[in-house]
Amino acid sequence: MNKAERKMRYGMAGGGEGAFIGAVHRMAAALDGEATLVCGAFSTDGDRNSRTGEALGLPPARVYADIESLLSGERALPKTERMQALAIVTPNHLHAPMAIAALDSGFDVFSEKPMAATLAEANAIADAVRRSGRHYALAFTYAGYPMVEEARQRVLRGDFGTIRRVEVEYLQGWLSRPIDADGNKQAEWRTDPARAGLGGCLGDIGSHAFHLAEHVSGLSVEAISADLTTHVAGRQLDDDVAVLLRFHGGARGTVRASQVAAGEENGLRLRIHGTEGGLDWAQMEPNTLTLRWLDRPTELLRAAGPGLTPAMASLLRIPAGHPEGYIEAFANLYRAFGRAVRSNADLDAPGLSDGLRTMRFIDAAVRNSTGTEKWTPLC
For residues 376 and 368, is the Cβ–Cβ distance under 8 A? Predict the structure, then answer.
């Protein structure tokens, strides 16, 4: 197999000129030289779509007007040339129809989160994954950070004893003013129920926080009590979230997410405490994992430094003291996805089960916040 054949060939839906997350996906996919973008349907605006394809160096014949023509056009190509997987980087309401169409057409899928606009749509995607047998991955980026994996491994091996507390907060301030009503495109669709789905802040960053809580702790939430608030007048979806968590086995926790925490940038922080000690990780200082103990001094672990678990080696690219961050974490997910696609192996990245869990969380949080029951089961 030559070098070109070792690369995963992928297409992209969305992510056209002026979009944020599409460029992030392309950078992450390209970082390790194991994936190459071969086609796309980047925008419903024909001129923007064409300009994006041209800027990315794609031949005009493989810059498609819509998802239907992309899938049919790629299927018509020889197997050695067509895309193998589709990256979906659109607003939430398009995730399900695009993912289902791609899976049913025989392509693997790497989708932005949340999985879909509603739980029913998420279940429909799950059905498509099962009947197609294709790989399905989700962009829960923070699972790709090396020190998050270090934290997960240490919880898994029991370093902290029995887990009692899991706390995640994700604070942003960029929606503190009504920029969604003033034409900001990134804000506009995220606060529109027709495009964002059930939750605003809840679906956008609360989903990340919830995923991190279960992913690192290894515990499963059994019930939640939620308070969803909209602070900015006229906004149709929540912009501030607080959720109490009850885990199977007795642990308790919280998810706090806000996009109206004025002055905050991207304040994602995870803390887990057990009977013997706990951990503390913050996304804005991603190379440091703090370990605190009941009966001995606090430890600071550093990415690529001494004392890390063997599993860390494959997630690090550069020597200690050279910062690795968001793009590198994202690239770890793409590398795992690409290797699964090329070798038809198991996917070692967030996928279907993670997506369904977060959609059940979003659905339960909305129902609990608008209802009268104190606790809502997370089935």
Answer: yes
Q: 96 near 126, Cβ under 8 Å?
A: no
Report the predicted TM-score, pTM, of the whole model to 2 decimal places: 0.96
| Burial grade of 136 (CB within 10 A; 0-12, 13-18, 19 or more) | buried
Q: What is the DSSP string of 154-220?
A: HHHTTTT-SEEEEEEEEE--TTSS-TTTTT-HHHHHHT-HHHH-S-SHIIIIIHHHHHHHHHHH---
Neighbouring CB atoms inside 10 A of 62's CB total 20
Sheet holding 8-14, edge to edge: 35-41, 8-14, 85-89, 108-111, 136-138
Structure tokens at 255: 């998810």
pLDDT range class, residue 323, cuts 50, 70, 90: confident
- Report the SS3 class of residue 28: helix
pLDDT of amino acid 5? 60
pLDDT tens-digit profile of 84-111? 999 999 999 999 999 999 999 999 999 9
How many CB atoms sit inside 10 A of residue 162's CB? 11
Give the β-pairing of 163-171 and 252-258: parallel
Q: How far is CA 22 from CA 60, 74, 141, 224, 256, in A?
A: 19, 20, 14, 33, 27
Helix then strand then coil, in percent of the chain rounded to 5, is 40, 25, 40
